[in-house]
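Take the subject:
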Amino acid sequence: MNFQTGLENTPQHGAKQNFAERSKRMNRTYEIMFIVRPDVEEADLDKLIEGFSANIASGSGEVKSVEKMGRRRLAYTVRKFNDGFYVLLTVAAPGSLIGEIERRLRVSEPVIKFITVRMDEEEKRLAKVKALRDSKVKRSAQPIPLQTAPPPAAAAVIAEPEAPATEAATPVAEPVAEAV
């Protein structure tokens, strides 16, 4: 007798859950920046971006934004090019799809350089820092307590005693240097 019938297809929970299964269901936010060769026409650049966007959409991902940053000078020579067209894609997709997009970027002839950054951890960290800052009370926002004047007895102690009149009245002779 098999008591496990029907339980084979149910998802496992907790630490026993397979990482690959989790990553298939979970969409994370990524920024993919790539540099395209400077000799590529504008129409070809748009076609390249549309191709990557279609790959992301077909792989259960979502393109949140596409930003063409224009032609810029590179910090160093990459594949004998000194400048290129910068493109930034913001994507929500599972990790397996990002691996496929990176593979396609690597084999794409017009793309000379690319980088992928996972942004959800950064956004989570920034939200945590902001919450921590908001929880602390700013000292500049607190009212400043007014200081009261010291009692008259304390004012007499603080005041400097007057110098005796005899010392101030006596002239002191200072030595005079003779000019030669």
